Amino acid sequence: MSNWIAVDWGTSNLRVWLVGNDGTILDNRSSDRGMGSLAPEDFEGVLVELVADWLGEGVTEAVACGMIGARQGWVEAPYAAVPCRPSQNQSIDAPCADPRLSVRILPGLSQTTPAPDVMRGEETQVAGFLAANPRFDGVVCLPGTHTKWVQVSAKEVVGFQTYMTGEMFALLSKQSVLRHSLGGKEWDQAAFIEALDDMLSHPAGLGTQLFKLRAAELLLGQASGIARAKLSGMLIGLELAGARSFWLGQNIALIGDAALCKNYAVALEHQGVPTRIVDATEMTLAGLTAAYLHNKDACHEP
Amino acid sequence: MSNWIAVDWGTSNLRVWLVGNDGTILDNRSSDRGMGSLAPEDFEGVLVELVADWLGEGVTEAVACGMIGARQGWVEAPYAAVPCRPSQNQSIDAPCADPRLSVRILPGLSQTTPAPDVMRGEETQVAGFLAANPRFDGVVCLPGTHTKWVQVSAKEVVGFQTYMTGEMFALLSKQSVLRHSLGGKEWDQAAFIEALDDMLSHPAGLGTQLFKLRAAELLLGQASGIARAKLSGMLIGLELAGARSFWLGQNIALIGDAALCKNYAVALEHQGVPTRIVDATEMTLAGLTAAYLHNKDACHEP
C-alpha cells in the first residue's frame, strides 16, 4: 500500500488530500474549480494539475465523492438505492488518460419510497461518521444548501429527506425584496428563537411572515440583525415542522458548517432534543478512507 | 376641466394614459423605465419625454400611483394608515421644473396592527374597484409578485396581508436547483390541484416537497409541466393556508394578470369560494380617475 488521494469535488469547490499508507494526511490543497463550472473533458486536467507533484512512478489511486459523479460531472456514478451501507457501494472508474492516476468516483444515494430523494457527497460524510461510531442508531442531520436528514440503523442508511432551507435563505436574503431589510452580519438570537417557535407552531404562516420582515423595517425601523435572525428562524422552523418524525425522541448528530450547525443545535435543543456537532471535513475524509479501505479489502478477497 | 394624464409607475414599468375631460382615453403609452432603474433626478425628464406631445399651453395635471412614491422614487408619498378610503388620501406634489406639467403622487397604504404591512399601487386598483362597486363588502385579492389580500368594508380598506408567493415562484423556478426540472411553459392542471390540496392540509411539508420536484425528475423522469404546476400549487396552497381568515366564507374579487388570477380562481373555487376576475388595467385607470376627481371636488369645496 502506498499513498493515495482523497478527493471531495462539489459544485463550487474541489478539495484534495494526500493520504499516507498509515492514514496520515501528508498534504492538502483546494481549488475553486467546482464541477459546476467545468465541462466533462476538463476534469482530468484540473485534477492532474492540482496534484501533479504528488504523483510518482507507479499508479496513484484517487477516491472521489460529490457532484463530480452527477450526470453533468466527470462520469456518472449511478445512485445506490437505500437501504445500504454508505461506504460499500459500487464505485465507478473515471476515464483517465494519464497513466500515473487511477480515479474512482463514489455514488450518491437514492430513495424512491416513501418519497423520491437523492444525495451526492453527504453519504460519504455519513460513512465517515459511521466509521467512527459503528454502533450509532439515530439520525444524522447535514445542514447546508440542501439540508439532509438521514435515518441510520445497523450501519446502514435506512431513509432520508432533503430540505432546501439553505438555498431558500440565500435566495430570499440576497435576491428578494427582503435583501433591503436584512443586510449585514448582525444576529439577534432572541428573534431567531421567537421566529422558530412561531413557525413550528404555525407553519402556514410562512407566506405572510416573510413580507412582514420588509414592512417592519419600513414602518418600525426593525434592525437588520433581527430580520436576518428571524428569516433563519422561520426557515429552520418550517424545516423542523416538516422533519418532526426525524428528530422527535432521537439522537441527532449534526455535520456541516460550524456556525450553521450551531443554529440547528440551538433550535433542536430548544425542542428538548440533544445534539452533537461533528466536524464536516473530518467526516468527509473518514468516509473517503472507509470507501478506499473497503475497496482494498474487497480486492484482496480470495 | 381639460385633459389630464393618468400615470402608473412601478418598479419595472411606466404606463401613461391621456384622459379627456369626459373620461375618454385619448391615447396611451408605456416604457420600461421603471423607478427601479432610475435616480430621483431622472423622473421628470423620463415622464416629460414620454408625454411631450400631450402637453399644451396651460398646465396639464398628472396623477401617479405605484412605487414612484417610495422613498427611492421621485418624491416620498408617506403611507396612509388603514382604515381609510383608498381614493381619498393626501397626495404629494412631485417637484417639477417644467411649467407645463403638475404631478401628484398618490400614497400607498400602511397597517401596523395586527401586523405591519404596506402596499403601493394596489390601493389604487382597489379604489378603482370600489368606484365601480361602491357597496362591495368582502375581500379583494391582488395576485402578483407580492400578492395582497385586502379586506374592504363601507368603501374603506380595513386591513390587508401580503404574500411573497409570486417572487418565491420566480426565485425557485428560475434561480434555484429546481430550474433544471421545471423549464418550459407546460402546465399540468391535475398536478396543480393535487399540490394545492396537499399544501392546504399539510403546510409544514413545503420544505421537503420542494426538493422532491428535483428528485422526481432525476429518478422518475417527472415532466417539467407537472413540476411547474406542482410548484405553483404548493406556493398558492401555502398562501391560502395562511390567508384562510381572508377567504373563508367571503366574496372574493381577483385583480391582476389574467392567467395568474385564473389559477387563484381555480384554487379558491376548489375550496368552495366563489370569485370574480376583474381587469387590472381598468381598475388602475378607474382608481387614478377616482383620485383625480376627488381632488377636483376637494378644490371646489367652499
* Average of the residue pLDDT scores of chain A: 95
Fraction in beta strands of chain A: 15-25%
Q: Oligomeric form of this entry? A: homodimer
Structural category of chain A:
alpha/beta
Note down, in words, how this protein is organized:
Two copies of one chain form a homodimer. Chain A contains nine helices and 14 strands. Chain A has about 300 residues and is α/β, with parallel strands linked by helices. The longest helix of chain A is centred in the C-terminal third of the chain and has 21 residues, at about 280-300. Chain A is globular and about 70 Å long. The model of chain A has no long low-confidence stretch (mean pLDDT about 95). The interface of A and B includes residues 208, 215, 216 and 244 of A.
Secondary structure: elements and pairs:
The structure is a homodimer of 302-residue chains.
Chain A: E1 4-9, E2 14-19, E3 25-31, H1 43-51, E4 60-65, E5 80-81, E6 92-93, E7 101-105, E8 109-111, E9 117-119, H2 122-132, E10 138-142, E11 147-153, E12 156-163, H3 165-175, H4 189-201, H5 206-220, H6 224-242, H7 244-247, E13 252-256, H8 258-270, E14 275-279, H9 280-300
Parallel strand pairs in A: 1-4, 4-7, 5-8, 10-13, 13-14
Antiparallel strand pairs in A: 1-2, 2-3, 6-7, 8-9, 10-11, 11-12
Helix pairs in contact in A: 2-9, 3-6, 4-6, 5-6
Structural descriptors:
5-stranded mixed sheet, 302 residues, alpha/beta, homodimer, globular
In short:
2 copies of one chain form a homodimer. By secondary structure, chain A is α/β, with parallel strands linked by helices.
